[in-house]
Amino acid sequence: MTDAATSVIFDPILEIRGLRKSFGAVEVVRGLDLSIRRGECFALLGPNGAGKTTTLRLCLGLTSPDSGSITLAGLPVPLRGREARIRVGVVPQMDNLDPDFTVRENLLVYGRYFGLSDATMRARIPSLLDFASLTSKSDAKINELSGGMKRRLTLARSLVNDPDVIFMDEPTTGLDPQARHLIWDRLKTLRAGGKTIVLTTHFMDEAERLADRLAVMDVGTKIAEGTPRELIAEHIEASVVEVYGDGAKQWAETDGKDFAPRVEISGETVFCYIDEPHALLEHLAARASLRYLHRPANLEDVFLKLTGREMRD
Predict the structure, then answer these.
(1) Do 247 and 289 contact (CB within 8 A), yes or no?
(2) pLDDT tens digit string along 80-128?
(3) Are 262 and 304 in contact (CB under 8 A)?
(4) What tens digit of pLDDT does each residue of 186-219 get?
(5) Which ranges of the chain have pLDDT less than 70?
(6) Which of 14, 3, 4, 158 has the alpha carbon at shortest distance from 84?
(7) Residues spanned by CATH 3.30.70 within the chain?
(8) In sequence order, what are the beta bridge partners of 21?
């Protein structure tokens, strides 16, 4: 591989160093460092209140940091945030489409915010509608669309300026499985076309499917970073055996720890984390009162180990 090729692959489109932000007495971002490469999909994970959405707002120049530096598309933010945002598309956490306009008009009007002429937008709109599978809905009002259609339109709208990087805040929250898979397919298409995607999500399977790399945040701090496979290998045993049924908790307290080096109880389920599960599975097969599921460790296991299983308000 040539040096030129290497420089393209590792060329950061977003560079964050020592980023801090407080609201009153609460510091919501605490010394965050991130470097996101051009052309990759990067996921930012964390429980509620971890600082993910604030981080995105800081990166876009919509909120001013207390300290630290942000460089987006080669420009310092927030100093030149307005210029940087011209090269950015945004899919907010909540759809903010204009209900008074049709699907087509929402795209047309949004293009004007970027200084795009109506003639330019009319030429772009057919491909955007096709990308979002909304060609047949071009003249529909927003209240006639399903939740999945609105989300796809919001995604299409984020592309009107042909951005280099797209920020997505929980892009599939509230969607049914079919709509989620369609959004995933569209994001993979964007990634294959060289777009950089930065997303926050609560869905671990979404991050595992889409992200080249990811960072886990908690209480405003980055606590882990790497590819999904790297994080799974680093933080979790190879296999997980979930044990259910009458007596599962009692079994965990008496026999479970003899078979698995790490056992966690959550509700009525016992999670056994283990590298060599054969002896445990043979033992469970002989216990008719217990049901169990054997699976490979995944990103959700990493997330729960690093951030805990307790609910966050």
Answers:
(1) yes
(2) 999 999 999 999 988 899 999 999 999 999 999 999 999 999 999 999 9
(3) no
(4) 999 999 999 999 999 988 999 999 999 999 999 9
(5) 1-10, 311-313
(6) 14
(7) 237-296
(8) 29
Helix (DSSP H) and strand (DSSP E) numbers for the chain: 13, 14
Residues of the chain with CATH 3.40.50.300: 3-227
- Class of CATH domain 3-227: alpha beta
The runs of H, that is alpha helices, within the chain are 3-9, 52-59, 81-85, 103-112, 118-131, 147-157, 177-192, 204-210, 228-235, 248-251, 257-259, 278-285, 299-307
CA distance 213 to 234: 14
- Rounded-to-integer distance, Cα 137 and Cα 231, Å: 42
Inter-CA distances, 27 with 60, 77, 93, 306, Å: 19, 20, 22, 20
Q: What dihedral angle (degrees, nearest 10) is formed by the CA atoms of 259, 263, 267, 268?
A: 0
Is 226 exposed, middle or buried, given 0-12, 13-18 or 19+ CB atoms closer than 10 A? middle
In this structure, the chain runs to a length of 313
For 237-296, give the CATH class.
alpha beta
Give the three-state DSSP class for 207.
helix
Say what the pTM is. 0.90
